[in-house]
Amino acid sequence: AQKITQTQPGMFVQEKEAVTLDCTYDTSDQSYGLFWYKQPSSGEMIFLIYQGSYDEQNATEGRYSLNFQKARKSANLVISASQLGDSAMYFCAMTLMNTGFQKLVFGTGTRLLVSP
Amino acid sequence: DVKVTQSSRYLVKRTGEKVFLECVQDMDHENMFWYRQDPGLGLRLIYFSYDVKMKEKGDIPEGYSVSREKKERFSLILESASTNQTSMYLCASTLSGELSGNTIYFGEGSWLTVV
């Protein structure tokens, strides 16, 4: 069965610094997708970045990049130049591409606090 | 602008009550999902539906049922609410086919307290 592990319940970073949020995954499938979402205190889920298992380049979206290490089964999120508005919960998630019905499996999340 | 709407954001219900959580999407999506979110546990899938009147159990279906009579609406039902169902519930929808990129749309969440 597929599983996502986020080992950091909370992280602190100073404004303008970079921060890495860890995510490891477990699946025996070769074809899968990895997602990162941000959830502010309001509760909405905001899509940040996506990496397909066959993508050779690490995904980047503005200040977000995904450090994809397939052999280690890790998909860490790197936020460069943190901003106060980055304070939120962050979830890593995975879906398998060859299942009939697509669904996401989420990790337990990391709460990021950005201080001035 | 695409939208997934959860009709109730904050509810307080009594133990034993029947509770309906409604989710409506305006994107003609085939797939709809109900997740439950608890601190330290992340999001866990309760049920999902891939077509009208079709449903599949997720990882934690016990104590819940669902209804999808129309394509745009997916209801989560707590037949007899219990205090351990106090949680935040998130609805999501997608088109059929591969999930990739920004293709999953979430509602804003429903915070349910059972007293």
Explain what the structure shows:
The complex is a heterodimer of chains A (116) and B (115). Chain A is mainly β. Chain A has strands at residues 3-5, 10-14, 19-21, 24-26, 32-39, 46-52, 60-61, 64-69, 74-79, 88-96, 105-106, 110-115. The radius of gyration of chain A is 14 Å and the shape is globular. With 115 residues, chain B is mainly beta. In chain B, the strands form two sheets. In chain B, strands 2, 4, 5, 6, 9, 10 and 11 form a seven-stranded mixed sheet that branches. The model of chain B has no long low-confidence stretch (mean pLDDT 93).
Beta-strand percentage of chain B? over 45%
Rg estimate of chain A, integer Å: 14 Å
Sequence stretches where pLDDT stays below 50 over 5 or more residues of chain A: none
Helical/strand content category of chain B: mainly beta
Shape of chain A: globular
The rounded distance between the terminal residues' Cα atoms of chain B is 37 Å
List keywords for this structure.
heterodimer, A: 116 residues, mainly beta, four-stranded antiparallel β-sheet, 0% helix, globular, B: 115 residues, seven-stranded mixed β-sheet, 11 strands
Entry summary:
Chain A is mainly β and 116 residues long.
Ordered list of secondary-structure elements with their pairings:
The complex is a heterodimer of chains A (116) and B (115).
Chain A: E1 3-5, E2 10-14, E3 19-21, E4 24-26, E5 32-39, E6 46-52, E7 60-61, E8 64-69, E9 74-79, E10 88-96, E11 105-106, E12 110-115
Parallel strand pairs in A: 2-12
Antiparallel strand pairs in A: 1-4, 3-9, 5-6, 5-10, 7-8, 8-9, 10-11, 10-12
Chain B: E1 4-6, E2 10-13, E3 19-25, E4 31-38, E5 42-51, E6 54-57, E7 65-70, E8 73-78, E9 87-94, E10 105-106, E11 110-114
Parallel strand pairs in B: 2-11
Antiparallel strand pairs in B: 1-3, 3-8, 4-5, 4-9, 5-6, 7-8, 9-10, 9-11
